[in-house]
Design brief:
Helix content is 65%, strand content 5%. The chain has 174 residues and is mainly α. The protein has one domain (11-163). The chain has a three-stranded antiparallel β-sheet, covered by helices on one side. Strand 2 and strand 3 (73-75) form a beta hairpin. Helix 1 (11-32) packs antiparallel against helix 3, helix 3 packs antiparallel against helix 4 (100-131) and helix 4 packs antiparallel against helix 5 (136-163). The protein is elongated and about 55 Å long. The relative contact order is 0.12. The mean pLDDT is 90.
Amino acid sequence: MSDSSFFSRRSAPRFVATFLALVAVCYFLYVRTWDTAFVESYLRWNAWASWQLLRPFYDDVLLSGTVISGGFAVQVDHGCDAFLPISTYLAGVLAFPSRLAQKLWGLGLGLLALLLLNFVRIASLFSIGRHAPDFFDVMHGTVWQAGFVLVAGILWSVWARRVVPEPATQSGSE
């Protein structure tokens, strides 16, 4: 591996250290704002968006604050906010050595994709709880948790691969 590659001896440790520091800062800020009106509004917004996805399929689905109900009920609470995968993705984009424009489109598109996925996740958990309640716990605590983190990692990998310049080829060699 040459020093011109992305993960040179200097850039890899810097990336990892910056990434871990940003994740720690995100977590600290989240814990500090845990019981604030901002976080409560964000949780309500997640519930509202998920409820909007459910309305075309269920005539009796209701929303009250952060609770979606109608034959089953889910409460959008801390942990349902996709904080961990979103903050991990954002920290990865910010820590990665790339131009500001690349970071901005990576942050914007990735955040949008992960927020939309979280709305789908919450809506699907409501549907699973309503139609297959025996599967709710495993879908909530295992499948969607792991799947969401996996999707965040894949999104970051796709973004990072797009922003890393192609290695220069030596002329005359094949």
